[in-house]
Amino acid sequence: MITSLFALLSCCHCYALEPKILNEIDLRWTDSNNVRVTFISGNEDTNGMYVYRIKFPKGHKIMPHFHSDERVVSVLRGSLYVGYGTTFDIEKMKKLTDGGFWTEPKEQAHYVWAKDEEVELQVIGNGPSKRTLL
């Protein structure tokens, strides 16, 4: 009973998942510094699950950082080099292509590089989420 009460209380302020049926053409993208993003469901800033897609241009790097929540990231199109750690180390990076994915445990330092081409990713997490640069 205590477990059920805790589960209920912990979701009182969660983002309620809304029913959506979308095709890719329905997505609304915003641009910031050559990075494009579209939120599919939820919001990183609030409690609950969120899903968004993000596109990085060829050559885009994100230096080591971590997030306050757990995430799963999938490569939808293109390729991306991903590494774990507090230092950007090309030797420790793995190239992921269409269908590849990686996990980001809470506070796991990581970094990415769209070295070869534009890449489109889908990010799923459970907010609130905060990014900390290292």
List the main descriptive attributes of the protein structure presented here:
Jelly Rolls, globular, mainly beta, six-stranded antiparallel sheet, 134 residues, five-stranded antiparallel sheet, 7% helix, 1 helix, 11 strands
Q: What's the layout of helices and strands?
A:
Blueprint: H1 2-10, E1 30-32, E2 35-41, E3 48-56, E4 61-67, E5 71-77, E6 80-84, E7 94-96, E8 101-104, E9 110-113, E10 119-127, E11 131-133
Antiparallel strand pairs: 1-2, 2-3, 3-10, 4-9, 4-11, 5-8, 5-10, 6-7, 6-9
Question: Could you explain the architecture of this structure?
Answer:
The protein has 134 residues and is mainly beta. The chain has a single domain (2-133), classed as Jelly Rolls, CATH 2.60.120. 7% of the residues lie in helices and 46% in strands. It contains one helix and eleven strands. The protein has one helix at residues 2-10, and strands at residues 30-32, 35-41, 48-56, 61-67, 71-77, 80-84, 94-96, 101-104, 110-113, 119-127, 131-133. The chain has a six-stranded antiparallel beta sheet with strand order 1-2-3-10-5-8, with no helix packed on it. A five-stranded antiparallel beta sheet has the order 7-6-9-4-11, with no helix packed on it. The longest helix has 9 residues, at 2-10. The protein is globular.
